[in-house]
Amino acid sequence: MSDPVRGTAFDVLRAVDERDAYVNLLLPTLLRERGITGRDAGLATELTHGTLRRRGTYDAILGHLSRQGIEGIDPPVLDALRLGTHQLLGMRVPAHAAVSTTVDLVRRTSGHKPVGFANALLRRVGEKDLDTWVTELTAGLGEDQALSISASHPVWIVQALRDALGPDGDLRGLLDADNLPPKVTLVARPGLSDPSELPGEPGRWSPYARILEGGDPGEIAAVRDGRAGVQDEGSQLVAITLAEATVDGQDDRWLDLCAGPGGKAALLAALATRRGAHLVANEVQRHRAELVEQALRQLPDVEVTVHDGRHGPWEPESFDRVLVDAPCTGLGALRRRPESRWRRRPEDLATLVPLQRDLLDRALDLTRPGGVVAYATCSPHRAETVEVVDAVVSARPDVTVEADHQWWPHLHGTDAMFCALLRRG
Q1: Cα separation of 52 and 330, whole Å?
Q2: pLDDT (tens digit, 9 = 90+) per residue, 10-35?
Q3: Is 328 tagged catalytic?
Q4: Active-site residue, selected from the candidate residues 188, 228, 296, 378
Q5: Which fold has domain 231-424?
């Protein structure tokens, strides 16, 4: 490959489009396989993540300039053009280098036929800066449509986030935060490591957190051997919220009903172990259960099970604390998983919301009177958060909501995690 950095970014974009690949898993793998390290790895990461984050804006520009619109551009050529547009408008790459490297990429991956088209289109993109393009393309549009282009979020997500924030919320601040690369956050698992032995600054909210400015967390010994992990502070706060809730009487049976890939389960297990409690970490998919086992490898007393959480073999009222980290749209982690905003559709809620309600209802059945359930989603969408809780609790006079929390990237520096604490009466 004559340009392995741009070629790797291109390959990741194609994998996202063709087979719904996850960037956070695929990109590090390709970088290792191709021996791309240091500044080149950083460039490949910025090219990939930056292009995906700003794809909505770049597509609006490319669609405006192309006579056939976005839909008429061959997908591999379109991905190359997106990479070129990001270099022209979102990075400090000289215009001639951005155009020539992208044209070379098009020639190598799609042949000679689209080369002239790509060259001409990118030269037109480079005639104006990003702010000028956005101003021109959003003139006369409604507020949500304009935000969709300028902040690079699908309109339905803009509307969902506006609804979740409420009338006084800083929607623009949230959308901008989604487009910033998140810092790497570490968690020291209690009893296995101490935050003081980890690099970075203390977290704002979790006593176990350390925030890194950069670097590879895999090079940290405590992370390599499972005594610490990489975990957003919002995710840590969910486990802490459940663990710190008051429970009268016995407190030795804990359950994580949807444990994959294992970050919350590992912190919860460490907290449980220090109190002499036993955690069951359940996951419906075998390959994700294996990830849970890997995360829990320093906590061998935890029981990892593979069941549909709605129908697992546990006795009613047999647990003191239960975590339901429910499958969701993931709209709270758009800065961390930039491809999600283009992958998800509003119709996904029709499948996810009934599942979320069923899992929460089952968790409450499995909790003894006086015990607590934490219901969490990495999404602030009201249909997946307060509306799920309200629907389940309204049909259960034996349950009360003690608290709910919504953390935000632009306010707390975390993913947009939701957590409600419910008590079984």
Answers
A1: 16
A2: 999 999 999 999 998 899 999 999 99
A3: no
A4: 378
A5: Rossmann fold (3.40.50)
